[in-house]
Records
---
Amino acid sequence: MSPDVRRAEHPGAAEEARNRAFGPLYSRNARAVISRGLMATRSSNWLVMLSGFFEPVLFLVSMGVGLGAIVGTVEGPGGGEISYAAYIAPALLAVSAMNGAVYDSTWNVFFKMHFAKLYQGMLYTSLGPLDVALGEIFLALLRGMLYATGFTAVMGVMGLITSPWALLMVPASVLIAFGFASMGMGITSFLKTFQQMDWISFILLPMFLFSATFYPLSVYPEPIQWFIQAMPLWHGVELLRQISVGTFTAATPVHIGYYLAMTAVGMLLTTLRLRALFLK
Amino acid sequence: MMPAGTRSGRLPHAGTVIAAENLTKTYGDVAAVDGISFSVSAGESFGLLGPNGAGKSTTMKMIGGVTGRTSGKLSIMGLDPDSHGPEVRAHLGVVPQQDNLDEELRVRDNLLIYGRYFGLPMSYLGPKADELLEFAQLTDKAKSKVDALSGGMKRRLTIARSLINEPRILLLDEPTTGLDPQARHILWDRLFRLKEQGVTLILTTHYMDEAEQLCDRLIVVDKGRIMAEGSPARLIRDHSTREVVELRFGSERNTTIAAQLDGIGERLEVLPDRVLIYAHDGEGALEQVASRGLRPLTSLVRRSSLEDVFLRLTGRSLVD
């Protein structure tokens, strides 16, 4: 042990003190926020979580199986014919990754901040706002990963998986969720009222409906195609659709790069806005 | 009246755990805290008194490092909370004005998880949580949900939670507001025990009896400035008389009769419902009133309290 390390009153205090990069914002203890989230889930939230798993499954059954009976087969990525259910399933997974991550990083954070006063309590301990942000984002991703695993299993059971590549949809969903969660948290720092929070749903719903989720992008005139391609969800839908059949193109790295960039920008924004987000 | 900031420039002596110098916090054009200076020694029980909006809670938040200050110096255990927030808070226990217990966790889990926020190991937290539940008289509620607790129990749990890291300084923001008398007395007893154990208590309140019970020394704050500082007894001596005579002549007549009371006692205060005579000898003052042929409907001689000091210094008009 180096001589400049002070003897701490409590185990952990000295360790926390050493990190000076984020000084008052970070104490390297996001895992405490994570344990809190897991414990809260165990004792009260698990039913709510279960409902989040069923949402995309219900969509898949109604649209994929029901509507799919009329539609028949469609052209999948790479030109192969696939069932309509197999066509929309990866898109629904991308939508569910988006919705879960956005909910966790916006409404959930907003509620815990302004009503449950949860963060107020946390921030009077050794925790800094960055610990809270990282812990909450990790929890959102963990949840997203469980949902993606469950949904992929459902796809398997329904016979919609034709390629072993499809297993990679799980980590890809986590990447999509990471992009939305980090960006969502940064944006939440600017929002003060419920009315403003409603704008988020106002953006999410059309993105869900029009991002080539249920039909190919080619139905739109070119200017609209460009617009949708600039939106994040389309990249998630395309990425998962490609992975589901194991067909990759030059666009694949672009989709992945889009989310890496979105995550980086979102994390930067969240970090810069931490004081506005948590310390009011 | 003592000007604000008379103590600025006084050097913190050894054993000082909190030193504030010209501490200022402004929101836009409004100065919530306007250049206050004070220091608190280890083991002392220090009160911040003031009406709503006086800047008490803002001062507490600056001490905890959750609100940055606009200017001035502040040192907690020798550290600046703005730059060493997590380390400063490792020494602090905080009981906020509003209970912010974790409603999604059970009673004992609230203590365990709060301890985790300080990075404390479970091997320490398990026995510590049981000890604190005992201290807060909540042992049989360990597995209850938080929203099943009464107001007094929630408050005690919040205090137990604030002690999980064995803080040297306990910040209590209006700890007994909204509690019934039984619950308040239980809480005072618990706080007094902590004081006996050498914990430094920083307390905001607008209950004068609470301040007299718990504080060794206090500052009276109004509109972000220090109006007076001292022990409760000292403040009463400096800013009020030993006794107060309260006379009621009926709402209509108080003002007209007050003119005839001139010269009795040290100071006269006319309120809508009664007239107060501040005097060193209350009974003597009352005899003088009688000798002038005045017959109040009711009269009461009482000792001066911190409330008299408070009202004198911060005024009687309603502040919201």
---
Amino acid sequence: MIRMFLSGFACLGFIALSAMFLIWWERKISAIIQNRMGPMLTGFHGTLQPIADTIKLLLKEDIAPAGIDFLSWWLAPFFVTVPVVTAFVVIPFSSSWVPYDLNVGVLYICSITSICVLGIFMAGWGSNNKYSLLGGMRSAAQIISYEVPLLLSVLLVVMESGTLSMQGIVHAQEHGWFVFKPHLAIAFVIYLISSTAEVNRVPFDIPEAESELVAGYHTEYTGMKFAMFFVAEYTNMFIVSATAATLFLGGWQGPFLPGVAWFLMKSYFLVFFMMWMRWTLPRVRMDQMMSFAWKLLTPIALLNLLISGWFMLKV
Amino acid sequence: MAIFLYIKKFFISVYSIFLGFRVTLKNMFKKSVTLDYPLVKQPMKERFRGMVDLIPPDCVICYQCIRVCPTAALELAHVTKEDKKKEITKFVFNAEFCCFCGLCEEICPTDAIYLNKMYEVVYFDHQDMLSIDLMKADKYKFLNEKNPSCKI
């Protein structure tokens, strides 16, 4: 019981710190890619900037627009944040640092993070704003479409390791990371692309496309509710990266350094890659994105699954 | 043939994505083009014409700058001592009138009057910029050891 409480508090603290760090890091990476300085004045190289932002958001007025569907509008931030927090239950930070090692860990993490789309759609529906509604509907379409290639690529990992437990998958990679096997390398690329779409980031950020929809589903939110969406977005990014690190890059395994350091290094490298992608690629059009999911990514994932499954049976 | 075109298009788009990543990776190691502004100042060019400044001991009180000034932004007065030496009693610069043409700098025979590199010309009080006493050493408070790029 005490262990559960402690790990829960540790996870919450980690989420807050990680989100703050990622917000600062995103701003810094965007700055160095665009040959700027980024935040410099608050703390050493602007390290205290996210804290200042948080205080600003805490002090802001919580505005409820006219004509909203109050229940769904009010509940939406929780529907986005709570699944993200609960997903930390199965993430293995180290051989012993895991809140609870479920034997269906992969299934749990894939299903719990899909609940986010419900919150996003509720936010879009409840806001009484056409931009929000469009953003929410786009997000629902996008996440449901990209769930298919994502799960097909995760399925390959499960087939290879023979277990659904996250720790079991890490242990199955003792003699070489999965990403170095050719069929799993393809699965890794598919996972990376579709997870970028899952967390609504560039080049798949059409639910919150600034130039078309004001800010998408969270246009009408202010203060702490907006902060919850913001934290959920960045934590979601960490979760998909941590899952990718666990499933394909050997999790906490690595020489010399302790497991936590390896795990965080791998996860944050993937987060960095996502940020790098954000400041490199332009946004795709809605129809381009849907046809990319259904006409290219899903067939490749299916073919990959079929061919490697056939090889697994044969050997 | 359509399938070959499709495959070609696929590879071209993958290649162009990697090209984009290469460009941004190169940019990551480039030096920032912007400055950490309030702490680091932009060094001004040689020909920049900032505020009118004076080296008081070099001035020979020839009144050339007063004559040449098209907007009458400078005001000079002097007294002649008993040993026939002149001494400036008043040398005031009106920053509101000045058009920063640099004629005073050109005409000065001893290069005593010149336009410095100061560009942060902000005053809390309007009266302060109407009569800047050029004889004072600390007339421009931004020109100090901490801001060497502002020096001439």
